[in-house]
Design brief:
By secondary structure, the protein is α+β, with helices and mostly antiparallel strands. It has helices spanning about 35-55, 70-90, 135-145, and strands at about 100-105, 115-125, 145-150, 155, 160-165, 170-175, 195-200.
């Protein structure tokens, strides 16, 4: 934009600290301090000021989803078809078949206030040492235009959770398995896992406060 065509945004200036001391609140010629102590304090203040100016504030923000469905039933059917494709692909690599079922349920949002809401839950059960298809489900949601709900991300030794949003709906994927016993070296964890995919209407206030 040429000068005079409108307001311009000033670019941040970089202060190297060599020609002009930063405003640190430390008086480098304070008579009550020894020269060595003054030098140390000024050096620490200078490094802190330069670090604060060079590290931008970070906020994790997912892109807006492109997936959209007119009703919860439509979202349920789309997610169900996606899950079936993941189950078939996982089963084709060997092992016992994955048991898949669907049922009505209730869901309590983690952060939004209010009573529980009607939900649809898909249940996947792996009964042997085959792959627990959490990663394929994560990729499938992303490929379908859903984006991550970072406040619903959790991971532990015996389970994990992942949240995904479309424009008007939300699904949380919860994985559960036997994480073993750290206090018993002879303990052998049971194979297999259970995955719940729970889908509900999206609430924009379902975020940490």
């Amino acid at each position: 934009m040429n000068e005079g065509e409108g307001a311009t945004r000033a670019e941040p200036e970089y202060n190297s600290g060599l020609s002009e001391a930063p405003a640190t609140g430390v008086e480098c010629d304070h008579p009550a301090l020894s020269p060595t102590r003054v030098l140390i304090l000024c050096a620490v203040a200078l490094v802190g000021a330069m670090w604060a100016g060079s590290v931008p504030a970070y906020e994790e923000r997912a892109p807006e989803p492109t997936a959209d469905y007119p009703t919860l039933a439509a979202a349920r059917d789309s997610v169900g078809a996606m899950i079936e494709r993941v189950v078939r692909a996982t089963a084709s690599r060997g092992g016992k078949p994955i048991r898949l079922s669907r049922e009505r349920s209730r869901f309590q949002y983690w952060y939004a206030r209010g009573d529980s809401v009607d939900a649809w839950t898909f249940r996947l059960v792996v009964t042997d040492a085959s792959e627990c298809p959490l990663a394929p489900l994560e990729r499938a949601f992303g490929a379908a235009g859903w984006t991550a709900h970072h406040a619903y991300m959790a991971d532990g030794p015996d389970g994990s959770a992942m949240g995904f949003v479309s424009q008007h709906h939300f699904c949380v994927v919860e994985g559960r398995w036997d994480g073993g016993d750290d206090s018993d070296s002879t303990y052998v964890p049971d194979p297999g896992c259970e995955i719940l995919v729970i889908c509900v209407p999206r609430r924009m206030d379902d975020v940490p406060r």
